[in-house]
């Protein structure tokens, strides 16, 4: 069971601190049509975390109007004075900005949250992925890192580990069973060679035919178990999530200052 403990370091905690999410800046080779959906996904993640009163880029447009928005958001995102001006115009203490860029065949997402009252970054995060879909799966952890808030629990590894264990057991069974079948087949071949030179040593033809059919069945069982085991191991390895570990306790912005948040 996941519980969240929030302890205010100031006298009392009031409303959530306000955070503005600016539109991601497209880097070289990245179209704006790609950054807008990713900005929306980041906004949704922040709202789901629940630590901030989140203002999206659409909220900014509605509050400021197009002309004022162009003046404020058209400045250099790396400028702290520019961020402070945006913060003052929107009444928000924290501003999250970022960029999406292409690095060869990979996508790079960079996020930074600025504390306008202290004029210093609250947190930063950078993620690399081969595809945009893979980058989206990293957003919960990237957003938590950029805002210095606790990350969500990592995905369950029960199914991947179960598949790996079952696959390993099935593969081992297939190898052992196949080795036993091969050993029995070699013993039968030795007996038949000896019976060719020793009259009366061999049994009936039907008994050997039955043994051969049994050995054939055992070989197929061994091959099937080994194949199924290898397939289960591969699927388990593919489903095994990347390490998404996060700190158990983190400093969280509150309306009056900072607080401690953790998962127990």
From TrEMBL:
Segments passing through the bilayer: 158-180, 220-240
Keywords in alphabetical order: Membrane, Transmembrane, Transmembrane helix
Protein name: Uncharacterized protein
Source organism per UniProt: Archangium gephyra
